[in-house]
Amino acid sequence: MSETLLKARLNALAVNGRTVQFWLRDDDAVEPTPALDQLLTLTRRFRVPLALAVIPEPTGEVLADHLRSQDHVTVTVHGWSHRSYAPPGEKKRELGLHRPASVVLGELKDGFDKLSALHGPRFQPMLVPPWNRVDAALLPALPDLGYRALSVFGREDQTLSLACLNTHVDVMDWHGTRGGRDADVLFAEIAGWLAEGGEPLGAVGILTHHLVHDAAVWTFLERLFSLTSGHPACQWMGVRELLASP
């Protein structure tokens, strides 16, 4: 089983006195739901910090009030409305140049200000583009809006002018069943990131979407957290700590 492979790889890191960092990003939060509560309970149980990518336009005080007792949760900006402006035939994209850049950047500023006001110290100045897509021409303007980091999917681009904290393993099978991916495939994928180049990554990002999780996803997450949360070679990190690191 690939879970055994991941455990063996972690054990080897521990023997050599090395550690790997993990972090968890969950997208599309707007309001309290049973699925969100299930994720909050699971992450709190295993002491896994949770970064919620919140859609600013439709959210409000109800979510902010719900999260006030959740000390392990941080909030980041998930675009503005999670609405695609790409024409038919193109991949979905909210943060593209299908509209004037001033309009897109204005919405990103509004989203930053709204979530900062709602969530206070829980808020982190990181942009999570809907569908993990943002036009490169918009990136230079982000620091002036207050953003200090960007999070998309895949290997980090070290040439960016702001910090890049990406996710690397997506639990969802978006192009097939639209449910959870096979657990063995996911464990193997994580193990592969740890072994790449012979050196563990600084932070391996796990990507979830609580609103569409099926039983397979919840079972996988519990298995992953059970394996890693108490392992001497693992550290589950929050966005605040990761962005403060060099």
Automatic annotation (TrEMBL):
State what protein this is by name.
Answer: Polysaccharide deacetylase
Family annotation (SUPFAM superfamilies): Glycoside hydrolase/deacetylase
Upper taxonomic lineage = Bacteria, Pseudomonadati, Pseudomonadota, Alphaproteobacteria, Hyphomicrobiales
Q: Name one GO biological process term.
A: carbohydrate metabolic process
Q: Which domain of life is it from?
A: Bacteria
- Which CDD domains does the entry mention? CE4_u4 (cd10928)
Q: Which InterPro entries match?
A: CE4_u4-like, Glyco_hydro/deAcase_b/a-brl
Supply the Gene3D superfamilies for this chain.
Glycoside hydrolase/deacetylase
Q: Where do the TM regions start and end?
A: none
